[in-house]
Design brief:
Number of helices: 6
Structural class: alpha/beta
Largest sheet: 6 strands, mixed
Strand content: 15-25%
Strand order of the largest sheet: 2-1-3-6-12-13
CATH topology of the largest domain: Rossmann fold
Distance between the termini: 41 Å
CATH class of the largest domain: Alpha Beta
Number of domains: 2
Helix content: 25-40%
Order of helices and strands: HEHEHEEEHEEHEEHEEEE
Shape: globular
Length: 235
């Protein structure tokens, strides 16, 4: 008897991407997330458009998501063209039991948050490795900043118990630059004990555009599991 191979992380990502693509209906306005999991959902949506002549419009959260949407013939609009987004889908770096998130390893957290804030439904696509008891346990919190504010922002992060580090490019000299032309500071915590304090303090710091904490925004999580199933979590 042949045993079934365990699900890989990519298998789980593909599974949840296909599941959310199946939820999309004709005429919807969609928020198109950034990252490898969202990319699989965009690809699955593109297949539905080609096979079923599905009519949707998409608002991408990054230049990368926009290019991918164009590749799969998803019409692009912006927030000036629509009143609301019916459904936004995106990945996450960490998800806690209350479905709060850390996002931003792709440096697109600010645009992702703008799109999520305008969506009637935010569907987060993850595998089991992204579920944590407390945010900040395994992933740093990205903070997008004006370059001249680097020193002051780092000191604020330290006052909150974090260890700040300017994110550097892996294949170029110098810092990572966001789609807004700003820098990313990664704040490492040993678990964030007070999400509200960190959220409010950072947003109130001059020079901070936004950060990767998504609090009380998620409506649904599609969790790809190692046994090949998808668990649907709702707030």
């Amino acid at each position: 008897m042949q045993t079934r191979s365990p699900m890989t992380q990519d298998d789980a990502k593909r599974l949840v991407g296909e599941r959310v693509a199946g939820w999309i209906r004709d005429g919807m306005v969609l928020g198109l997330g950034t990252g490898s999991t969202a990319a699989m959902a965009i690809e699955a949506l593109g297949r539905r458009i080609a096979e079923e002549n599905l009519s949707v419009r998409g608002i991408p959260t990054s230049f990368a998501a926009e290019r991918l949407a164009q590749q799969f013939s998803i019409p692009i609009v912006n927030l000036d063209d629509v009143e609301r987004i019916d459904l936004a889908f995106d990945g996450a770096d960490e998800v806690d039991p209350d479905l709060n998130l850390i996002k931003g390893r792709g440096a697109a957290q600010t645009r992702e948050k703008i799109v999520a804030s305008q969506a009637n439904r935010l569907v987060v696509l993850v595998d089991e490795s992204k579920m944590v008891d407390r945010l900040g346990t395994g992933m740093p919190l990205p903070v997008e900043i004006v370059p001249m504010a680097l020193g002051p922002v780092m000191r604020v992060i330290e006052s909150l118990g974090g260890r700040p580090e300017l994110r550097m490019g892996s294949r170029k000299d110098g810092p990572v630059v966001s789609d807004q032309g700003l820098w990313i500071v990664d704040a490492t915590f040993d678990g964030i004990s007070d999400l509200t304090l960190v959220n409010v303090t950072l947003l109130g710091t001059p020079g901070v555009l936004d950060h990767g904490l998504f609090l009380d925004m998620t409506t649904d999580v599609l969790l790809g599991k190692s046994d090949g199933s998808v668990e649907h979590l709702q707030r």
